[in-house]
Each structure stands twice: as C-alpha cells, then as structure tokens.
C-alpha cells in the first residue's frame, strides 16, 4: 500500500466500506509506532521479535478500538498489551536465548566507551527476569510513574517498587565488572 495506510485500514479501507473509526485508528498507529517499537525492542532485545510484539498489541487494540476510544485509555492499553505479549512469549518453553543481528560487520570495529556501555547494559538487561525487565523498561525507558507502571502491568505499586529494586540490583551485579573496566565503577578503597 503506497498510500501509507496501516494494515489495510485508514482512508482506503473506509472508502471501500470499512468502519468510520478506522482512519482514527490508523492515525493513532502512525503516531505511536516508533515509540512502541522502541519499547518492544528494549523489552526483548531483538528487532524482529519487537515487530511481532508490536503487531500483536496493535491487533488487540484494533479489536477493542471503538469501545476503548470512548474511555481515552489508548496509550495505557496498548502498552499493557505489548508487555503482556512479551511476558507470554517468555513463558514459552521453545523460545531460545539467541540474539540475532540484522547485519554482521565485515571487520571488527573499534568501539568507543559509549557503545561498549550501551552493549553492556543491553546484555545485562537480557539477564534480568522478564517481569522485572518489564518494570524497568516501563519505569525508566518509558518514564512512567510507579502508579502508571502498576496499571500497565496489572499489579500493585508495591510490586512495581520491589520488582524495580530487584531488577536494578540484578543490573548492578551484572554490570559491576563492565563498569570497573570502563572506569565507571565506584571506589574500591
């Protein structure tokens, strides 16, 4: 579809007899896709899986759009569906722990410390249990409050706080050697 319509919705579909709200849905999707894709990537660490998670969440949003749009909770709902899809995927026994790359470099690159630190954080984040990772991504990547994170995950604010504390402790433990190697670690004296 060269017209920029999303998944067969929008003006093209409405003109062919689709629901009148589909244009609003398509506009919402276009305006949020980049941010939601980034959140999905930080959750799972793989762009292809992130696309799958995003499509699952957007499909669920599409199915309830007419009812949900009246309540104005669209962002929270789609974020909740994204996290639930991620957590559900992580419960599957067949899912491997491999990480794929879109393209492998021809030569070994010399990385600056910023790139090395980002890679270390991404690797350490992959070791954080999925529920704790979801809390960390929503709280610190999406900059949600404790209450907003609790609503997105369907849990209590106390659970968000404890999961965030445990997740951060796991990250600190995983990153400790890398931080010392980069000269970022605390004093050992």
TrEMBL record:
SUPFAM superfamilies in alphabetical order: Sigma2 domain of RNA polymerase sigma factors (SSF88946), Sigma3 and sigma4 domains of RNA polymerase sigma factors (SSF88659)
Lineage: Bacteria, Bacillati, Actinomycetota, Actinomycetes, Pseudonocardiales
Family matches, as Pfam families: Sigma70_r2, Sigma70_r4_2
All copies of domain RNA polymerase sigma factor 70 region 4 type, residue ranges: 119-171
GO biological process: DNA-templated transcription initiation
This protein's name: RNA polymerase sigma24 factor
Originating organism: Amycolatopsis taiwanensis
UniProt family annotation: Belongs to the sigma-70 factor family. ECF subfamily.
InterPro entries, per the entry: RNA_pol_sigma-70-like, RNA_pol_sigma-70_dom, RNA_pol_sigma-E_actinobac, RNA_pol_sigma70_r2, RNA_pol_sigma70_r4_t2, RNA_pol_sigma_r2, RNA_pol_sigma_r3/r4-like, WH-like_DNA-bd_sf
Ranges of residues in domain RNA polymerase sigma-70 region: 35-95
GO molecular function: DNA binding; sigma factor activity
Entry keyword DNA-binding: yes
Keyword set, alphabetical order: DNA-binding, Sigma factor, Transcription, Transcription regulation
